[in-house]
Amino acid sequence: AQKVTQAQTEISVVEKEDVTLDCVYETRDTTYYLFWYKQPPSGELVFLIRRNSFDEQNEISGRYSWNFQKSTSSFNFTITASQVVDSAVYFCALRPFTGGGNKLTFGTGTQLKVEL
Amino acid sequence: DTAVSQTPKYLVTQMGNDKSIKCEQNLGHDTMYWYKQDSKKFLKIMFSYNNKELIINETVPNRFSPKSPDKAHLNLHINSLELGDSAVYFCASSHTFRDYAYNEQFFGPGTRLTVL
User: Fold this and answer.
1) How many CB atoms lie within 10 A of CB B51?
2) Which of A45, A90, A91, A105 to mutate to test the interface with B (most CBs of B within 10 A)?
3) Which letter does DSSP use for residue A16 in this model?
């Protein structure tokens, strides 16, 4: 069975602070994918990043960075110099590399509030 | 040039009614999905179709029936609506899992269903 845990239900920060969203996962698969999605107040789900389990290289995209650590089954997401527009619910998700019908297992999400 | 579209965006109906939600994607994907997001924002897959073939049916009541007339469309029909069906329903699409390089799922804007 696959499981994704986002222990932080809600985080509030002041603009320009850095913030890290935690994601811990469980799977019996040796190869898999991890994803982050953003759900702003408007409600749509926006794809942010995909990471393969065999590629542990960290990734940076502008103010966003992701730290994948297979040894601790974690895929954390850091926003540097947060902005009000970053306010959203962020979901971490897990998917088998093959099989499982492409099924995404989502975490419960972390509500990020960035205030002025 | 909307990638994944859903209609309607809002659906308010009485208990016991039958309703449909339509989904279309113009990304050339061959796999489509339905997800349900409950009031606590928890996202769970309901169905997955690959090339019009049902791949995942995730213990959803048989009052829910997906219909895929072609690869670009996956509609969701719900019979005898119940109060507990109130949720946001998201359609998504992706390339088939075999094409691992580009397999992230892209989501529609969601349909907020309210059953009174």
Assistant:
1) 12
2) A45
3) T
